[in-house]
Amino acid sequence: MKILFKNANIIDSDRCELNKNVLVNDGVIEAIFGQTDSLPEADEVYDLRDKWLMPGMVDMHTHLNAETGINKSGVNGKLWRMLTPSPEKAIHFLRNAQLTLMAGFTTVRNCGHVTYYTPEDVAVREAIYHDVAVGPNVIACAGFITMTAGHGDLSYPQKLRRLPEYGMGERCFNGPWDCVEGVREKVRNGADFIKVMASGGMGSSGDEPDWPNFTVEELSAIVSEAHALKRKVAAHTHCREASIRCIEAGIDTIEHGCGLTDDLCEMMVEKGLYLIPTMRVVDVLVNSDDKEEAKKAALLVDDHHRAFRSAIKTGVKMAYGTDSINALKHGENGLEILNMREGGMSSKMVFDCLTSNAADALGKADVQGYIREGYNADLIVTAKQPVENIEYLSEAGHVELVMVRGKVVKNTMERPF
After folding, report:
1. Which of 25, 218, 345, 373 fits a disulfide with 340 by CB distance 3.0 to 4.6 angstroms?
2. Is the pTM of this model over 0.90?
3. Which CATH architecture best describes the domain 57-362?
4. 2, 83, 90, 192, 256 from 138: Cα distances, Å
């Protein structure tokens, strides 16, 4: 199917050009050209005069397995994920993915909280890929790798027995060879990347954020095996020691990064590692109704902001992520923009985090993150110039058109086309 965007102002991390025409064919940007007396034939034509066409945004850190819709059960989110049958969770996952897509996020990386043997992120990814359902590009981890008494294992009520074979909880991995097996299991189950819990966290019960999880030897085994299988590794870290171990092991993306300091950031720069800072979640959880969660967040919030400032100052590569789940609503992913700006990022830096940096962190910069001929047609339209008005993208309603894989899935433009 051929779709023509005419009279578009196009913008990405490398270009800003006015009054251009963009032809999309079979899910790919086929041609970008200036004004001409004759336009190519197209099945659909959209007049984008005075509008801005930019790459679709990427959320590098989501947790889409969360209860959605009306008439919710009222069950605690941890218990809901533990006890709800996988087919039902997959439906909720898909709905949350669709809400995120309507906010302009055409790619989402799901970072865990799925059923062990039947990961919903893989199932929904396949349904979308085969055109069974409408949704964003889903980058799946098929569940995280955690250790006994680690973050993820303790995210469930401590005294509730884990029974992965019945869909209740994750299997834990301990020791280098066990961790290698964990990577292989995730890949066998359909993982696009590997997610490892390298420290304690906020949304768990019984651990502390400053507990490092896994030794350097274990983390190095995970990275080595994942890279051998052409998979990148993302690590949840909330303390300095966990970050030190992850940097030494060569983790591709450090998630959250609380506890990072100038010296650690310089090590990340030297190794070319990415930070996914997820600034909003800690600020929000300070006011959580869960007293333990709020207490942990209060301990982390200053370290989190200091780490973010260190990363900006030292030039650490960063990409956009929200950690959206129960505390952060799916479809409101753009609000992280406001926190990144308040934390000291320039508008252009945030834009790059949302588009080209994220594509690079995913290993997809050759097909995604820019408006270039031959690139995937994941595009959005907004009324204001997005680099100069990056906060405008924080509201889903300001994204007037969404195209994913060459198909328009949202269009609220008033102008006829």
Report:
1. 345
2. yes
3. Alpha-Beta Barrel (3.20)
4. 24, 24, 13, 9, 20
